[in-house]
Write a structure and sequence with these properties.
The protein has six helices and eleven strands. The chain is α/β, with parallel strands linked by helices. It has one domain. Helix 4 links the parallel strand 6 and strand 7. The two termini are 23 Å apart.
Length: 230
């Protein structure tokens, strides 16, 4: 079992590894750094470093974890990458459908493909779907997320690289806000985060402020529709 240091989840599961950069939020990708390290350590799943690789032998892993937990899917990749076949995505979803005792968090920057294939996926209630939005330029990803059949929809507004004004949070259940950390981290202004907090209040959207060197983490609930979102 792979326990996660990510504050908003418990474990990670990577039926796909590797990716490529598609927007500024990818610049200091932690998954790329980690994959190079794991490659140097001889970890078989990372023999090709950060090259996109399907890991079918990892598919059944959550079914062997009997204790219910929150699982971040593909922390080291993007399930909706153009080179991941739809049939394979459907296999990942089938495992999540079967492992109904877990809560799965899927996150993508490739929201256009997510919207394209959503109708061909089985969205059981234990699957949370999210999109990453690092700046105003990429808020269209939220519109694509709304098009999906996911019962719970969330935003990862990290690394936050600029203000996000007048977000349309209709149908969005949860928002995570955080900046970068580590060598070469780009700054995040507290004002950007406090403005997002104001937008979440009263809009049925939970908020998680992540500790990333600029302040303490904070979780808020604003008239949330789903009482299990804490």
């Amino acid at each position: 079992m792979t326990y996660s240091k990510i504050e908003w989840t418990e474990s990670t599961w990577n039926p796909v590894t590797g990716c490529n950069k598609i927007s500024p939020g990818c610049k200091n990708c932690y998954a790329e750094r980690m994959s190079r390290r794991l490659q140097a350590m001889g970890q078989k799943n990372y023999a090709d470093g950060f090259k996109l690789t399907l890991q079918p032998h990892m598919l059944a892993l959550p079914l062997r974890w009997k204790k219910p937990q929150t699982i971040f899917v593909n922390s080291m990749s993007d399930l909706f990458h153009k080179n991941v076949p739809l049939e394979y995505i459907q296999q990942v979803f089938e495992v999540m459908n079967q492992a109904h005792w877990h809560r799965f968090q899927v996150l993508t920057k490739r929201a256009d493909r997510l919207a394209q294939v959503s109708s061909q996926l089985n969205w059981t209630s234990n699957i949370w779907m999210g999109v990453s939005v690092e700046s105003q330029k990429y808020t269209d990803r939220i519109d694509h997320l709304r098009e999906t059949g996911a019962k719970t929809k969330f935003l990862s507004l990290e690394p936050l690289l600029g203000p996000l004004r007048n977000l349309d949070l209709t149908g969005i259940d949860w928002a995570i806000v955080g900046g970068e950390s580590g060598l070469g981290a780009r700054p995040m202004l507290v004002d950007w985060a406090t403005d997002i907090r104001k937008q979440c209040r009263g809009r049925e959207c939970c908020l998680f402020l992540q500790a990333m060197g600029w302040g303490a983490k904070e979780t808020e609930r604003s008239n949330a529709r789903r009482t299990d979102l804490g």
